[in-house]
Structures are given as C-alpha cells and as structure tokens.
Amino acid sequence: MSKGLAYLFGISLVLIVIGNARTLPTGSNPSIIVFTMVVSDDHEPHRFLKRRVDFTSQHPYWLNTTIENNIDHCDRHGRKFVVREFPPQPLLPFQVKVSHEVCASQETEALKQDCTMKTMANFHREQANWLKLQVLLDYCESDAAEYFLFLDADVVMMTRPGHDPVGRAVELMNEKNVDILWANEDWQNQYQLNGGFILVRNCEWSKTYFRTLLEDHKAARSGCNQNEQMCMRGAIQSGRIGVDTHGHVASGKIFNCHPNYVDLNDENVGEIVHFMGGAKAGLKILDLNQKGACENEMCFHVHHCALRAERREIKNNAFVWVDPLNAGPGSRFVLNQAKTPQFQSFVKFSKSTGVSLALIVPKASIATIPLTEEERAYAKTIGLMIFEVDWFDPPGADYSLTSHKCAPERFLILHAFKLTQFRAILLLHKDMSLTGDVTDLFLCAQHDRFMATTSLASGIMSSKVLAFKPSMHLYNAAIRFSEKVELAHLGNQDGNEFPEDHCVEGLVYALLYSSQYASNASSIFEKTGMKPEKHRPYTRPRALFLDPCEFHRQGGDADKCAPYRDCSAASITTINAC
Questions:
Q1: Neighbours of 328 (CB within 10 A)
Q2: What gap in Å lies between CA 558 and CA 565, rounded to an integer?
Q3: Alpha carbon of 496 to those of 149, 375, 387, 489: distances in Å?
Q4: Distance CA 131, CA 120 (A)
Q5: How much is the pTM?
Q6: Number of H helices, E strands in the chain
Q7: Residues forming a β-bridge with 11
Q8: pLDDT digit string (tens) for 57-99?
Q9: Do 440 and 434 touch, CB atoms closer than 8 A?
C-alpha cells in the first residue's frame, strides 16, 4: 500500500491500487486510471480490500458491492482501479466563520452549539466532495496516465458482453475534441450537473481548470463557496477558463444514470449507474459477476451474493439427491453411494452446520424396485430424510412431437422445487463430492437466486448441481410449462438441442434462462401468483450460472479451468476430478 500523490490541506492521502495495475500503450488503447474515494468516519483509515473478495464489516454492503464490481470491470479491460481513502477533512476558515455566524441568533448556548455542529457537518460533507478535484489535479500533475476517471463510491460500471463504458466515454471525449467530460441528470433534468462522473484528459488546460476552481473555493468566491457541483456548473454556464470549448456535458442516462428512472435491461442506456441517496438499497439486489469458465468469462459472483445474509445461518437448508429405484443393489443410493467416503463429506458438513440430508424416491406403487426396509433403516441411522413421490413424468407433459419419451426418471428432480420446508436446497447428482465450503451457495439461494452450472465437456447446462429456493411458484410453473412445450426440442444457450435423455435440463433452461421462451415462461409464473420486479422485463426467478471450475469440476477440466481456478478452489467435484 503506497502513499498518496499529494497532500491536501496538510492531510496525507491513502492510495490503494486494485486490479490489473499495468500502464497501457498510447494510441487506440490509451492508459486510463479509474478511481473512487472514501472518506472515513474517523481519523483511522480502514485499509479495506487488501485482496480480492476480502469484504469487511467496517464498510457498508453497498460500498463493498460497488468496489468489487468495479475491480472486476477494470480487470476485464486491463485498466487500473484505485481506491483513495481519506480521514475527515478540516474546514476552511470561511466555513468555520459561517458556521458560527448562522447560529449566533440561537436563544441558548446549547442550541448554538447544536446548530454549529450541524452546519459544520454539512461543510465537512462538502469538503469531501471537493477532494475529487484536488485528486484529479494531483493525477494530472503526476502524468500517471493519459486519462483519469473519477466515480463516486456508489457508482457501478455495468459489465455487459461487448460493452466498454469507459472506452465509450473516451471515444465521446475525442469525438467532441474536449478535455473534460461530465454527465448531467437528464433522466429528470438535463440542466442539472452531477459530480459523480468526471472524465479528464491529462493536459495543461485540465490542470489550469482544477487549480482555478480550488483557488476559488479556498477564497470563498461566489458560486464556489458551497458544493463543487455548483462551482463546476457555474463555470460551464459562464464559459470561463475556456470551459465552453474544452468541456462537454454527456447524457446521464448513459454515463451517470439513476437506477430508478431507467430500464437497466436497455443496453442503450445505463452504461454507468449511480445508486445515489436512497437508491443504494438497489445494491442489495445487484448481481455481480466474477471471471470464470462461463460464457464471456462472466460467472455469477456467489460469494458476493452471500453477503446479503444478515446471519450465516443455513440450518433449515438441505442437500437433496434423487434415486429412481430402477436398478439393483450396486446402484442404489442408500446401499451404495450413502456408504462412500464422498458422501461422508456431506454428513460431516451436515453435522457442523445443521443442513439436512434428503433423498427423493418414487413411491412403491411406481418404483421398479421399491425401497426396502433395510434401506429405510440405514437412511434413518445416517439422518437421511426420505421423500416419496407419485410420478416420474410431469402430469400432462407434452411428448407429442417425439418418437419416444425422454428418460422419465430425470424429471424426479422437479419434486425438489416444492420442498418448501427448507429455506434453500442444493440438489446434487450422486457422483458429486463435497470438497469445500458451500455455505455461500445456500445463503445466496435463500435470496431467491436459482443457480446452475454448465458442463465444460458438452457446453450445455447441467442438472448435476442446482441451488435454489424451493417454492410452489417454481414447482407449479415447471409443471405448467411442461404441458406447453415439446420437451425433447428445447434449445440450450448455444442454440443446440439437449440430448433426448436430458429433457429436464432443457425444461429448466427454457423456463428460467432462455430468452426464446422468456415471454411464455413469464406468463406462466404470473399465473402462479408470482409478482413482477420493477425494471425486469420478465417475471421469473433470477437464474444465473456458477463457475463450473468451482462448483462442478470434473475429470478433464484442468486445462479449461487453469486460467481461473485450480483444484484448491473447487467446492463440488466429481469423484476423481482433483
């Protein structure tokens, strides 16, 4: 951790560089430093985020969310991301004077002191906002990069395939031939400037601009004796310092948008989103990505999602397996898999956390070889709950276009969707082993996230590891959906059909992930009584893909996982994967 580049009002700055800290060549791929600032509530900087995914309780959830997202975003584009942390800033002489003057008329000394403290607190907040201009000046004088982008701490750069919000902003700056780019609040008022986004070209004019505004502020000159946005807006309106030819105000809908006023699913807006004020509550439901072996290297960041939980309590959760009871003793779950060392890893986890163990089987009336008394007795001794169900095929399932049925026993997993006595379920294939801590999977599933993996061998979605919150909405929607679509002809994420004996994967993918079937699935979920979410185009659970290198590692995955994670980071694997 290095010291800051300058001293502001005699207070040393803390500089934390996170991400890919390399300087890029000039030209078509210019060097850009993206930074944010945090002002501590006390005089001891917290030294947070010492490493990736090292979240701390010293900072609010929303701050960890924005910073972790922006770290990942800059990593993807080969840029530096910097967090500058400061202690509270001292007030300027005119601010102290004003604080006492405006409170002089208070009737009692106690009221005067209370008024003065509140007024000074407001000035401290303004001083924190003025810091960004000093830091931008410091950066320009350091010649550390060609461009510097300041983002408020509650700003998120959206990660979308093929999108580069920062690159787009630099292109706009070059197109307009200017040296500074701000963003307005045109989602409600195009004349309102917002200081949460400032892109600066490193040049002499930029240095002159920041020096002038900072001097005006210290001298309490009109327009610059309050917050920095008013000062910058005044300079734009007057055109002084050459701002009219050197600066451009960009659309806030694109570069600084308020999440409550735009549809974040519209890729033409919301490149950079500002969760200002009360909008920070939206960061509680923001799903972040992390690099992994998923499409576009964008896997769901389950460890960040788990931070939403107020307590790391997973007692009312369950590991669930399925046995169709159609084979002899050598392939029976209770008599075979439940006695293996890999199953004991689940038993050990269950005993330490209170997570239940459960098995779904067909009732004796439909099972090829019904569950025996011996199996029931052994299941009881190891704490394995038995759930007997009355169908293999979803009632009314459409097979009309196929020459023969999908493998019916695979649909038994749908019964797990209605096990609502559990807060979250981790549904597993019998050949999976537990090699790490899966607490975060359960915690995230409790927040109504449906999570699956893809097989790195086949490239299609797998049902061998599914984490979700059971609900009658999910169960009823799956049954109704199976009546509406031809199960053997559901495409996967690559436009290919699932193998005919993988119809359940096709069903789950089409119901929860597919854009092709999204409208039909949404209509079915609404008929189950599920309520739509604001700014989400379809009504269905949030479905995301986990990194298979961490949660579904198989033998032969080593080369594909090498750029992301080794075996030591794998939590769920096949028996001989590592």
A1: 10
A2: 9
A3: 42, 40, 34, 9
A4: 17
A5: 0.75
A6: 17, 21
A7: 8
A8: 456 778 888 888 898 888 888 898 998 888 888 899 999 999 9
A9: no
